[in-house]
Amino acid sequence: MSPNAHITSHRKPRRPATQSWVVRTGVAGGVLSTLAVAGTASATTSEKPTEATMEMPAFNAALSTSIAQSAVATQQTAVDYQVRAQVEEALDQAKADAKKAKEEAERKAEAERKAKEKREADEARASRTSERGSLGTKSTSASGSEAGSSSSSTATGSSASLVNFLRAQVGKAYVMGSTGPSSYDCSGLVMAAYSQIGIDLPRVSQDQSTAGTQVSTSNLKVGDILYWGSAGSAYHVAVYVGGGKFIGAQNPSTGIVERDMSYSPPTGAVRVM
What tens digit of pLDDT does each residue of 139-168 get? Predict the structure, then answer.
């Protein structure tokens, strides 16, 4: 091989000067563009955003007065509600009291009506018994006249007067210590009844239970004094009016009544006429 033979060179070929200038100019322009963009971004980034603010109302005298007025109005509303609740509660209580009073009045009226009906029934029975007693008195009086027994006629007449007086007192009030004419206790009624026919009796039931002759309760006559308890210490007295009945001032709740003997059988009896 010839020493001048071509050997490939490892050196780069040289570029034309014009091309090199263009490349340098392009590189410089790119750098400058990049710096311009970066500067713009930096400037944009360095600007802080504007914060939004809200203006608060000034706390002055007008605002203070408004707040005070609002508080007073709120308090007044609460008071109004409380007063209204109390009024409604009072009205409910008044209605309940009125209802209770009405029911009580109706109950009393019903009790009085029944008591009146019973009293009228007792009076009707007493009237029928009195009529039968009058017929018996007339019959006994006639028999006594035929037999010439004037004392029997007088006793029968006194018994009728006694019973009539007692029946006229039925329905009157029982009052402890009273002897008439509008109210009696038990011994006061017996004493007042016998005073109508001229017989004076002791004032109290203990003494009245021994004022006459002791008789059996199975052999009674009209006018006999009935007593409850022991003779000499009796606690209650009444008068036998015939037909298995007696009249007496029983107690404050019943007053003076006519009752069957079975209602309260007496302990004993005395005869004073």
Answer: 444 444 433 333 333 345 789 999 999 999
Distance in angstroms (rounded) separating the CA atoms of residues 221 and 224: 6
Vertex 74 angle, CA 71 and 78, to 5°: 140
Query: 144: which 2 tokens?
Result: 């006594």
Q: In angstroms, rounded to a whole number, what is the distance separating the alpha carbons of residues 159 and 198?
A: 12
Q: Which sequence spans correspond to the domains of the chain?
A: 105-271
Residue 237, token pair as written in the block: 């007295």
In the CATH hierarchy, which fold is given to the domain comprising 105-271? endopeptidase fold (from Nostoc punctiforme) (3.90.1720)
Distance between CA atoms of 158 and 138, rounded to whole angstroms?
Answer: 13
Confidence of residue 59 (pLDDT cuts 50, 70, 90): low
What region does 232 belong to: left with phi over 0, alpha with psi -120 to 50, or beta? left
Distances (CA, A) of 184 to 166, 238, 252, 261: 11, 12, 10, 21
Residue 153: which H helix or E strand, with range?
helix 150-169
Q: Is the Cβ–Cβ distance between 248 and 186 less than 8 Å?
A: yes
CA-CA distance, 190 to 272, in Å (whole number)? 12
Q: Is there a contact between 256 and 189 (Cβ–Cβ < 8 Å)? A: yes
Cβ neighbourhood burial of 256 (10 Å; 0-12, 13-18, 19+): buried
Q: Given pLDDT bands bounded at 50, 70 and 90, which one contains residue 66?
A: confident
For residue 14, give the DSSP letter. Answer: P
CB 144 within 8 A of CB 153: yes
